Here is the input.
Amino acid sequence: MRSRVNVAQAIVAPLPWAVMTTGLVVNEITKPAADVKTPEVVLTSLAIFFPLLVLRLALVSFLHPGRRTTLLLLLASIAAWSVGSISVNAARVDGQTQFPAPGEWLFLLSYLGMAGYLLRDVDRRQSRPARAWLDIIIICGGTACLASLLLVTPVRAVSHQEGSSLLLALIYPMADMILALVVLGQSLLQTRIDRRKSWMTGMAFVLLAVADSGLALQGSATTYDFGTLSYALWGAGFSLLVAAACRPAQTVIRAVPRSGDTFVLVGAGVIALAVLTVRPDQTLGYYMLPPAMLTLAAVGARLALALRDANRANDAFALSQTDDLTKLPNRRAVRAWLSEGLADRTPLALMLLDLDGFKEINDSLGHRAGDTVLMLVGVRLREAVELPARVARLGGDEFAIIMRTTDEIELMETAQSVLAELAKPISVEGIEISPAGSIGVTVAGPGDQDGGEVMRRADVAMYQAKNSGLGAALYDAELDEFTRSRLKLAEELRRGIAEGQIEVWYQPQVDAATMRVCGLEALVRWRHPTQGVISPVTFLPAARRAGLMGKLSESVVTQVVDDLQARHEAGVDLNVAINCAPPELLGPTFLPHLFAAIDRVKVPPDRLVLEVTEDSFLADPQHTREILLELRDHGVQISIDDYGTGFSSLAYLRNLPVQELKIDRTLIGDVATDDRSRMIVASTIQLAHALEMRIVAEGVENAADLAALVAMGIDEVQGYHIGRPMPPWQIDAWLSERAAADRELVPSPSAASETELDRPEQERKESR
Here is the structure.
């Protein structure tokens, strides 16, 4: 039903314009004909034109129930106008119609309806309607005063009319101008969001005002004498008004609703004062003095409201910058001080103090005791610093101190003296407490423009002090994980994942007994468009902080499975190991994506080895067990990565479906020279074999370590002595070259090559 109505509305929309144009053309053509009366042609056109407008409004009101009342109000207004217009033109068929006509009240009623329509047809309501109405009255009144000077005087001079005749000649154009001014006021106050609709509506009333003014300026105000141009203006005005009303309501806010600009309000008041100063004669005074007096009264009321708001704002501003509990300045005041200092380029430093153990005080003694501690700490801080230093409470147990210096030695000395003063005992409910805290210090640099950035750096330094246990610490950019450059790196990584810049490299694994290649480990790399290949050590922390590990893991899994299928089809049958961090392993999306990728390419699932760290079992043992069992049900092998660096409990080795243990490089590096390392590795190998698990040694960097591991019975080895991580196209060539060497059981001499990117101390297994 709605679709049919929508189609009907679209069909009806251009018809009023067509009818109006056709009627005017026929009217001009038939004027010379003696047997055709012009009013009959116009009357026929009006009888079709106005019903079409009413029909369109009725259809749109059906389509938009929320605007139905508003649209029906305009529909009634146009219906009243159409009845009045048809009656006036019908009377003209037999001769001239006296002004005012019997149907004049219908026109007046129509204007009241259109005024009500404009007041309802807004996109947003003002939060302070009293101010909005005063602003509209001032804008309309001031412009009405100006219009009266430009309109009333010439009409009176041309028509030579006085009293009620002049009033009736002016009432319609004045009403049109007032309605146009209402639209202007609403637009200035930004309660109308749709600018095009505002222009169409305002122009509609301007066209009506021009048509009505033309009638008044004819100089014959006792009878109606319409010309073709007047009909065209009236028709265009009503067509524009209806077309604007039928536009859909706007929901996108492009500007904040506001009160009238000071310039507009003052300008309206000046114009009204000028009208009163001119002191028009008694006849013109009837039309010019009332809007001028109303405008001045509205301006006075608006100024009174503004003065009251200013007084309240001053009081509220003072209260808004004061902490209720300690009576110290608050966070808002600190931001204001920082902004002022940065703007003046004065030496500036910020200290942030966070109390240690304050939560325990609250939990043990109650919030009233906690409030007492905060008030006493505020007193101590004021006593610990000298002017011009400023002390404030940011909220909770955080305090701020602003210093007018950039001397880092002086700042650290001040911080230590503050901590010493703070540590003096205070008595709270009969208990002596020695508060302690951590202070972060940062200096505002010449390039700082934002106080929020200075506060952020001080906050980072404060946590550095808390974590280090030093009590006070200067901001260190190297320890800041949330610098702009790192945030930029995270955004570039997000874009890089979407644009396919993530690559999977592979490091070979060989069977220790035969020295044949038996598997590959997938390692992630980022081929940055300007920085080249980036190691995972650089970008994985940013990926974790930005929540990108899930998408990164999915990208790696997709590439690994596709490469595995390609090698399988080429006759290369190797295992491929994929690293998986606990958050992704325990998350809801990684496993479904992995299983879907396996099913998509139909690769043997037992050729995939998922490497999980011991942290996974610490995070959620029961959930981890369920996930690993699900992996085994799908045929995927499971390896414990970095074995020996975690808690290394034997319980999960007994209870979980694990096929492989991977000894961490920290235990492998000294296996040839250190007896204790050799004993740990040998016992681990024996344990794995007893549990029917294979064991892999990673980080084999030299022939001596390799020989020692082989002698101890290691199953598989990997490391730079065997082969470095390589991109897919290079690993495939390496495997082809190695195949010949494997047949002779001779390790590849080129395997020991290294690049600066892949040095062992940088390659920390931060991969997927």
Observations:
- Residues 746-768 have pLDDT under 50 and may be disordered.
